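Justification of computing resources. Each target in the renewal requires a structure prediction run like the one illustrated here; the chain below, 187 residues long, is used simply to show the kind of job we budget for.
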Amino acid sequence: MRTILILTAVMVCMAVPSAAQERKQTMETPFYSFTMKSLEGRDVPLSTYKGKVVMVVNTASFCGYTPQYKDLEAIYKQYKEKGFVILGFPANDFGKQEPGKDEDIAAFCERNYGVTFPMFSKISVKGKGIHPLYEYLTTQTQFKEEIGWNFTKFVVDKNGAVVAKFESKVKPTDKEVLAAVEKLLAQ
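Resulting structure tokens:
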């Protein structure tokens, strides 16, 4: 009987996560739980980018801020070997400035700006049809507000925590943006 009780206690202990495991699970960021569709139609788990500094940007092809693609590409090339990546998410939520299909967006980005950083399938970044990634970014992080316009930039640290947000008017090459990226890369 005593053996059965001991075995039962051991089995219960094995089934219940340790306090350390529970802390790890609750500290794990939801950012890495999303899987997104690339412009080419491939599923890309955001966990692919664990250990990197990530900039998440909602983009549009026909916006006054569209020339920021050039600056985004420049900082991507400057820092990618150090562990930095930019993830572009086209959205048609503001003034219908991203009307094209994924193929059109890919061609536009390559032809006009030579974009080589990962670009994803068009999604909604606000409103009723908001994609779960952007719902997370705008309701479950310290930046609890709806996206204001195209080319809003979120910066995610190497552990998946969303640590900075820069509005559309702030260029990717702005000294404040670069300082944030460099600080995170140095950690």
